[in-house]
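User: ok so my PI wants both of these folded by tonight, can you help

Assistant: No problem, let's get them done. Here's the first:
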Amino acid sequence: MRAARYYDRGDIRIEEITEPEVGPGMVGIDVAWCGICGTDLHEYAEGPIFIPPAGHPQPISKESAPVTIGHEMSGVVYAVGPDVDDVSVGDHVVVEPYILYDDVDTGPASHDYHLSADMNFIGLGGCGGGLAEKISVKRRWVHPISSSIPLDQAALIEPLSVGYHAVERSGAQAGAVALITGAGPIGLLTAAVCKARGITTIISEPSSMRRQKALDAGVGDHIVDPTSEDVVARVKELTVDGRGADVGFECTSVQPALDTLFDALKPTGVLVVVSIWSHPGSVEMQKLVLKEIDMRGTIAYVNDHPAAIALVEEGKVDLAPFITGRIGLDNLIDEGYETLIHRNETAVKILVSPSGAGV
């Protein structure tokens, strides 16, 4: 089968590799669609980060570059291994792409398996990836979805789960006001979760296309252009007594956006850093102290996929508006990575059909 393989920074190759075996406790999936994630872009332009460099195997998967990439995937089950009796051939599924030690508690009551030692992700740390025609995944990480959800939209459930977990981490409740810096896929999907929960959203985004996408998708109550407007002043205008936003979501990994959140949040506000920073950032500690800002990190998800899937199945989140491109594997670099790195004002979420059938 064909797959996209990461060798090193700037070096991704489309190759023929052996189809995966579907062993005991495993589920074989024909990948329908795989999204290109911001993390993938960081790996391509600045990595390796999560991807284990050649000669330095990941402790759990025992793999190192080259590895098959892609972790935002949807597909159809084509085989199930022994000991799998609750998923059937033909089921539509998405993958929660974790690589964890077998002794980690991943049960429904766990709230920290995503923070366990040597954690990594399928499609980054090894174990196959969604930018291949097929993948074999442990049953624990396979989530059945309704066949009423189109498979291209289903590929966005993984990043939607990132947004869901970020909102959970914030503690924000209905009636709160959230400032979201960045209207890329994660910013927009975090906003979608906020809207589904009755949280008012203010989105700051320099790209006119992405600002329009936030409006068209109905996830931004107020849209601000930070290149021409004073974001902090606008937030104060929109909040009671000019106190500022209750919660902020940093979805850019850009220092000015982080600085803006400190100024735009109310005293005792919560600042959640969602983006992956491949470089050091700085915090003005006096603002953190004098405003008693609660600054929190958030990584991926932990038992959040079922709730994220329910938001889509119940019609509370519409994923269709966020898809701006569909390509095949052969165009992964020129129409995918290069577009999102160098022309990101023209696209939000680009999906890849590994087999080419969906293009």
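One down. Here's the second:
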Amino acid sequence: MFIKERFFYLSFFTTMLMFCSSAQAKTPEDEIKVKVFIAAMFEIGENSGDKAGEFQHWYNQYFADSKPIKVKGAHSPVYCNSEGVCGSVLGMGKVGSSASMQAITLSPKFDFTKSYFILSGVAGTPPNKGTIGDVSWASWLVDYDLGHRWKAEEGEKGAPTFTPRKGYEDIRRYQLNPELLNWNLHLSESVSLKDSKEANDYRMRYPNAEARRSPAITVGTHMTGDTFFHGPGLSKQAQYITELYNADDYVITEMEAAAIAQVLDRTTGTERIMSLRGAVNFDQGHPNETTLQHLDPAPGETAGGFAETVENIVLVGSETVDHIVNNWDVWEDGVPKLEQK
């Protein structure tokens, strides 16, 4: 009898323990259902009240009243508002940004099953394709690496010094959803971009018509590389890589998007990814400076327009964020067809 009583009480307490644990566990209703996630790569100081980096204008517009949500393995806290818009600073470079994105997407605190992602930040642009202050939507994300490189003098004279390495075909490029890209361009077509005298003065050092124009909204390939490359030779190589991969012309150089896309491809899919970059520098010097002088400019020789560009990014991107959230019943199950008038 004693043994049966012990067995009964042991079973009873085990059942109660399991019940309590289950009651305390999070349910799907506790998860934050994310409609749009905004990923920035760095912030200069605080999220508000000082010089703005990539996240501050997003924070001021969407998260000023939000509390930080810490996620193990992420670079910075996540912020979410009551409308289902969330955002965070992921960290710079392929490894840091993608590690943060993976930690966040795998966190049980969030439901990303129907989320749209805006990968947002500053970037460089070739002077024959863009200018300071431009805001660019990506049609393709291409990895600058994942191949073989050699010094020019060690190969055939005048020939390219890069070749792709086999085995990376599925991760070296991502074509972003063309229908979503069309929506981005449609929603932002009437946005008026900010500019500055300093940026305009700097543009005039370049002979290219594209470099000398006012800021505009552009579209093309965003090239991801941890190497902050400079000079006409490496810019030409970036364009060569996009042609090898049958992507659109290279218009933006950045350090994170293709790596983040790989994480999202494994966790949520790529159909709802958007890459939005603002050009704050050219990827090469003007005719009167060397590549090294451009890489390490003397005082007064840097490009202006940084403050205006980080604001331009949010002016453009918020049109898409607001439209998706305000029309969630249409966007929840996928990108709707854009009816062109």
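The chain has a mean pLDDT of 91. The chain is about 35% helix and 20% strand. Good luck tonight!
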